[in-house]
Specification:
- The protein is mostly beta strands.
- Helix content is 0%, strand content 57%.
- It is built from no helices and eleven strands.
- Strands 2, 4, 5, 6, 9, 10 and 11 form a seven-stranded mixed beta sheet that branches. Strands 1-3-8-7 form a four-stranded antiparallel beta sheet, with no helix packed on it.
- A hairpin with a 6-residue loop joins strand 4 and strand 5.
- 28% of the residues are buried.
């Protein structure tokens, strides 16, 4: 089992910045993929940013150039730096963590979600 602890959400004015953190603990194996998703009221959950071992990060078009996903391997923590926020970025943000040993099926875990509210 892997436990994910998210933090960093909050209320910010348009143009501001926030950094989300997702700290993983428990049975983390050698192959991992992490992602940040968000879900706004009345909308489906969407992928915002993702990264995996040995690959370049990927981003939704709507956040490219504004958001950056990074990972601290020593802390098993993934971050989402969000700059130039707009009201359209308002959503609950979820961390997703996939982990597996080589040659095995991945296990997928979700964080509890953290609210990001951007005022105009």
């Amino acid at each position: 089992q892997v436990q994910l602890a998210e933090s960093g959400g909050g209320f910010v004015q348009a143009g501001g910045s926030l950094r989300l953190s997702c700290a993983a603990s428990g049975s983390i194996f050698s192959i991992n993929a992490m992602g940040w998703y968000r879900q706004a009221p009345g909308k489906q959950r969407e992928l915002v940013a993702a990264m995996s071992s040995g690959e370049n990060p990927s981003y939704a078009d709507s956040v490219k150039g504004r958001f950056t996903i990074t990972r601290d391997n020593a802390k098993n923590t993934v971050y989402l730096q969000m700059n130039t926020l707009t009201p359209e970025d308002t959503a609950v943000y979820y961390c997703k963590w996939e982990t597996r040993r080589p040659g095995t099926i991945k296990s997928v875990y979700w964080g509890q979600g953290t609210q990001v509210t951007v005022s105009s």
